[in-house]
Every structure is written in structure tokens, then in C-alpha cells.
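Quick one, C-alpha cells below. Sequence please?
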């Protein structure tokens, strides 16, 4: 069994490249992550979406915790259903939200 996604086609003719401009949202239903960018280009030759222009990926862990990754170029590997950051990337978010809700004692102030 393979995990490869079927090729995109239209009326029996294969699509080789598709470009979407302006406020593109790409969602990964497998893990709930999504990406936003000014432009997305799909290349059928390698089954990859390339996101450009203020592109970022958001991964939610629950209603209160998420991380955001930005990079000059973000790829979505359709067959593997994953986002890949290319170039210098940054990560931000609120990963420590859940850590405050533990049974650990409050720190003592001097």
C-alpha cells in the first residue's frame, strides 16, 4: 500500500502547474495544520505546493496552544502530507500555556 495522493486532473487532461495569487490558505486535514501565503504554486511533476510571500504555517495542539513557523519559502509535500520550511525560519507561539496548569507548587518569591 502507498500513501501517494492521486494526480490532479481536469476533464481527462493532467494539470502540470497551477498558480493561486492573493490570500492563499492551504490546509492539512491529517494533523490540522494550515499555511497562509500570498502565492501558491502547484507543480504536478513532483506533487508539491510551493508557498511564497509572507508564508507561514500554523500548527494547533489544542484550543489554547499553537505554534507558527515562518520561512521565505514553504513547501507542502502533498503525497507525504507535510509542510517543509526552506531558508531561515522562525518559530513563535504559546507552547508554554499548558505548562502553567500543572500541580507544581507556586515559586516562592524572596
Amino acid at each position: 500500500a502507498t500513501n501517494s495522493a492521486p494526480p490532479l486532473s481536469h476533464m481527462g487532461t493532467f494539470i502540470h502547474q497551477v498558480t493561486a495569487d492573493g490570500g492563499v490558505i492551504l490546509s492539512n486535514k491529517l494533523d490540522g495544520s494550515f499555511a497562509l501565503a500570498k502565492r501558491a504554486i502547484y507543480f504536478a511533476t513532483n506533487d508539491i505546493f510551493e508557498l511564497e510571500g509572507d508564508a507561514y504555517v500554523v500548527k494547533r495542539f489544542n484550543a489554547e496552544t499553537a505554534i507558527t513557523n515562518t520561512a521565505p519559502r514553504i513547501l507542502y509535500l502533498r503525497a507525504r502530507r507535510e509542510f517543509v520550511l526552506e531558508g531561515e525560519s522562525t518559530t513563535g507561539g504559546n507552547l508554554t500555556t499548558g505548562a502553567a496548569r500543572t500541580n507544581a507548587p507556586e515559586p516562592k518569591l524572596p
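The CA atoms of residues 41 and 65 lie 30 Å apart. Strands lie at 9-10, 13-14, 17-27, 34-43, 48-52, 56-60, 66-70, 73-77, 82-86, 90-93.
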